[in-house]
C-alpha cells in the first residue's frame, strides 16, 4: 500500500528521490495523471512518485514532423497543438481511462508510451515504438539519461526509447518524450460491409488490407450497436468496417475500388463525423460499457476467426484486421489457461485488460514468459533498476 505521495518539480529533484529510495530500499509507484493505475498487476510500493509537474511541450517543428514534450503533458494538449498544423499522433492513442474507472481527458504522453496505447490506425501506421524516436528518463540508480534523438534518421546506439514502450514504468521514469508525427488527412470515411458471419467478416478485412485502398483502420463488430452521435446509434452487427482517408476525390476512388472488390456485399457509407465516432469507440473499448472483465488477444489476422470460435465469448469484436480481439470473459484461472492455450498455437498472446484488483493479483495479467525470455527480462530489469525501485510487480511478480 502506497503511503507517501511525492511530486518532484523537475527531473533533478526526481533523480535525488530515486537515489535515496535505492539506498533505503524504498519502492515507488510511478504516476502522472494515474488514469492507468488499474491496468496491469497491483503495484507493491511504499510511495507514489507523481511526475505530473513535469508538463508542457518543449519543442515542436511542424515542418520536420517532430514534437518533444515533458512526460506529464496531457495527450489532449499535444493533439490540440498538432491539430493547428493539421497533424496527428500517428499511432492514434485512444482513451482507456473510463474503461479503467478513471476520468477521461487526463492521460499523459508518458502514460501512453509506457502502456503502449495503440489505436485502430496501428494497421496502417504502426505501434507506439514506431513513433517514439527519443526520450529522457531516470534509471534506478537515479541517473538522468537521454536516449535517441530529435531527428528520425538518428539510429545510433542501443534503441532505449523503444524499450520504454510498453514497459509500464518498470525500467525507468520517463521525463521527456520525442515523437515523430504525421500529417492529418483531409477527410475520412468508412465502408460498411453488412451481414457478415465472423469468418467471412474477418476474411473481408484481410482482403481489404491487401487492396490499393490503403485502409487506415479495419474492424469487425459481430453483435454490437455503436453510438454515432449524441442521440443516435447504427446497428452494425455483423459488419466489417473499412476506414479510408484522403481528399474527397481520393475517397471517392477508394470507395469505388472497395465496392468493386466486394460486388455482392450489402454496403453503407459512414461520413467523416460518424467514422471518427465509431473508431473512437472501437479504440476506447467503450462498446463494452463499464462492467465486466475484459481480455485483449493478439493473434495473426488469419487466425482470428479460429481464435474466436475456440474462445467461446458471447461479447467480442475485432480491430487491426483481426489482429486484436477484445473479449468479455471472466477473469478466472480457467479462462486464462484456455485463452493462452489458444493464442499459443498461433504465436499470439492474451492480456487481462480489465478486472478487479484481486483477480489481477491472482491471475497473470500479461502473457507468462518462457524461461529464456524471462531470464532476459530479469537481466534488463537488473541493468536499469537493480533495487526494484519502480512499479514492483506491475507486469510480473519478479519485476
Describe this structure as you would to a colleague:
With 399 residues, this protein is an alpha+beta fold. The chain folds into 3 domains: 1-184, 2-Layer Sandwich (Uridine Diphospho-n-acetylenolpyruvylglucosamine Reductase, domain 3), CATH 3.30.465.10; 187-284, 2-Layer Sandwich (Alpha-Beta Plaits); 286-371, Alpha-Beta Plaits (2-Layer Sandwich), CATH 3.30.70. Helices cover 30% and strands 24% of the residues. It is built from 12 helices and 20 strands. Strand 7 and strand 8 form a beta hairpin. The protein is globular, with a radius of gyration of 21 Å.
How many distinct helices?
A: 12
Radius of gyration: 21 Å
CATH architecture of the largest domain: 2-Layer Sandwich
Largest sheet: 5 strands, antiparallel
Structural class: alpha+beta
Residue stretches low in confidence (pLDDT < 50, at least 5 long) are 151-157
Number of strands: 20
Mean pLDDT: 93
Shape verdict: globular
Give the DSSP E fraction (strand runs of 2 or more residues).
Answer: 15-25%
Widest β-sheet, arrangement of strands: 4-5-9-7-8
**What top-tier CATH class of the largest domain fits best?**
Alpha Beta
CATH topology of the largest domain: Uridine Diphospho-n-acetylenolpyruvylglucosamine Reductase, domain 3
Q: What separation lies between the terminal Cα atoms?
A: 17 Å
Amino acid at each position: 500500500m502506497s503511503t507517501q505521495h511525492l511530486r518532484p518539480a523537475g527531473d533533478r529533484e526526481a533523480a535525488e528521490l530515486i537515489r535515496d529510495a535505492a539506498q533505503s530500499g524504498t519502492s515507488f509507484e510511478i504516476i502522472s495523471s494515474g488514469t492507468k493505475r488499474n491496468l496491469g498487476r497491483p503495484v507493491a510500493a511504499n510511495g507514489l512518485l507523481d511526475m505530473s509537474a513535469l508538463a508542457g511541450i518543449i519543442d515542436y517543428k511542424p515542418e520536420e514532423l517532430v514534437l518533444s514534450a515533458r512526460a506529464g503533458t496531457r495527450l489532449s494538449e499535444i493533439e490540440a497543438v498538432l491539430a493547428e498544423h493539421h497533424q496527428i499522433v500517428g499511432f492514434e492513442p485512444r482513451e482507456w481511462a473510463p474503461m479503467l474507472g478513471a476520468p477521461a481527458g487526463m492521460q499523459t504522453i508518458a502514460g501512453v508510451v509506457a502502456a503502449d496505447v495503440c489505436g485502430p490506425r496501428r494497421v496502417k501506421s504502426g505501434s507506439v515504438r514506431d513513433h517514439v524516436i527519443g526520450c529522457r528518463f531516470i534509471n534506478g540508480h537515479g541517473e538522468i539519461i537521454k536516449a535517441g534523438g530529435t531527428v528520425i534518421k538518428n539510429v545510433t546506439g542501443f534503441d532505449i526509447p523503444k524499450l520504454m514502450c510498453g514497459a509500464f514504468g518498470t525500467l525507468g521514469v520517463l521525463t521527456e518524450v520525442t515523437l515523430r508525427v504525421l500529417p492529418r488527412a483531409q477527410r475520412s470515411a468508412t465502408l460498411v460491409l453488412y451481414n457478415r458471419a465472423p469468418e467471412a467478416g474477418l476474411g473481408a478485412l484481410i482482403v481489404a488490407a491487401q487492396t490499393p485502398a490503403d485502409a487506415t483502420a479495419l474492424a469487425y463488430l459481430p453483435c454490437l450497436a455503436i453510438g454515432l452521435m449524441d442521440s443516435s446509434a447504427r446497428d452494425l452487427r455483423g459488419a466489417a468496417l473499412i476506414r479510408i482517408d484522403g481528399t474527397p476525390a481520393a475517397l471517392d476512388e477508394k470507395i469505388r475500388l472497395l465496392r468493386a472488390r466486394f460486388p455482392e456485399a450489402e454496403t453503407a457509407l459512414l461520413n467523416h463525423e460518424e467514422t471518427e465516432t465509431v473508431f473512437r469507440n472501437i479504440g476506447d473499448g467503450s462498446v463494452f460499457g463499464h462492467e465486466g472483465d475484459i481480455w485483449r488477444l493478439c493473434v495473426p489476422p488469419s487466425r482470428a476467426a479460429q481464435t474466436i470460435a475456440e474462445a467461446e465469448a458471447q461479447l467480442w469484436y475485432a480491430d487491426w484486421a483481426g489482429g486484436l480481439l477484445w473479449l468479455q470473459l471472466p477473469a478466472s484461472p480457467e479462462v486464462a489457461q484456455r485463452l493462452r492455450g489458444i493464442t499459443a498455437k498461433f504465436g499470439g498472446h492474451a492480456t487481462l485488460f480489465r478486472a478487479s484488483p484481486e483477480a489481477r493479483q491472482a491471475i497473470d495479467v500479461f502473457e507468462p514468459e518462457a524461461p529464456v525470455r524471462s531470464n532476459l527480462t530479469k537481466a534488463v530489469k537488473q541493468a536499469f533498476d537493480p533495487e526494484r525501485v519502480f512499479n514492483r510487480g506491475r507486469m510480473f511478480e519478479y519485476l
